[in-house]
Amino acid sequence: MQTYVALLYSIILGGGRRVVMSDLKAMAESLGLKNVRTLVATGNLVFEARTTKISVLEQRLESAFEETFGRRVDIIVRGAEAWLKLAAGNPFPDESADAGDQVAVRVMRKSAPADAVEALQAYAAKDEKVLLVDGDIWVVFSRERPSSRLLAASNHKRMGVGTSRNWNTVRGLAEMVGSRQ
Fold first, then answer.
1. Nearest Cα to Cα of residue 161 among 22, 10, 27
2. What is the pLDDT of residues 93-107, one digit of tens each?
3. What is the mean pLDDT of residues 60-71?
4. CA 45 to CA 89: how far, in whole Å?
5. pLDDT exceeds cutoff 70 at 159
6. Who contacts 7 (Cβ-Cβ below 8 Å, separation ≥6)?
7. pLDDT tens digits, one per residue of 125-157
8. Contact 153, 176 (CB under 8 A)
């Protein structure tokens, strides 16, 4: 058995409805996934399954999600080792320590384009930073501005399929995964 992390791109179903984490957990368990846990109510799963291709798990979860909730949602899966590597590779440790909710990573299904950082720099405020680490896009958002243009600029159309999580969530998932290793 291998431990995996699954990140849903969205848990909004439309019409003001959101996915309830207990329902998401039940959906994952119906697929035969073991020791399924959620972290915060934003579509984060940790589970155990037989070692298999990541793409197979993503497809199974996406199909089950659409069947269960009536909406297609991209789901990004990483193995435990890959998740721990992602967390350990945080290029902004000082900023993360000061404000974990201001540092985020866009976890990509396939590596972000090589020119992704350069393209995003055009949207960054003076106090914002963007780095590409192992194909994922790390961002420090402005502490001075209530909203950032970077979030909208790092969408599927420009960067490819991925989903963002702030450092607090990344760290929380790493702790969950690390306790199972």
1. 10
2. 999 998 888 899 999
3. 94
4. 21
5. yes
6. 43, 44, 45, 75, 76, 77, 78, 107, 163, 165
7. 888 899 999 999 999 987 666 677 877 787 767
8. no
